[in-house]
Write a structure and sequence with these properties.
By secondary structure, the protein is of the alpha+beta class. It contains two helices and five strands.
Length: 93
């Protein structure tokens, strides 16, 4: 979890998963993370940003209950290439 914004009650989630990490394991870990962020820290929104072209992470985020919000074009440059990001979020219940 990074970039907690206490005024807006939101944060960003950064995931770096190995291919061996199962969807069931991710769901179990994320359930605890979500409970902590929404119930203990009282945050309202969790966001994940994914480089366009990444095909495995969006599927996992959608399975966890995230919704795709849109795309941020040319958010940064890496090795001479403009990198665009898709934004996914989940809102507390």
């Amino acid at each position: 979890i990074q970039y907690i914004n206490w005024m807006m009650l939101n944060a960003q989630l950064q995931l770096e998963l190995s291919p061996e990490f199962s969807s069931e394991g991710l769901a179990e870990v994320f359930s605890e993370i979500k409970h902590y962020l929404f119930n203990e820290l009282h945050l309202h929104r969790l966001e994940a940003r994914v480089c366009i072209g990444n095909t495995s992470v969006p599927e996992k985020l959608l399975a966890l209950g995230f919704e795709k919000e849109g795309t941020l074009p040319s958010q940064f440059e890496y090795e001479g290439d403009d990198i665009s990001l898709d934004i996914y979020s989940i809102i507390s219940e």
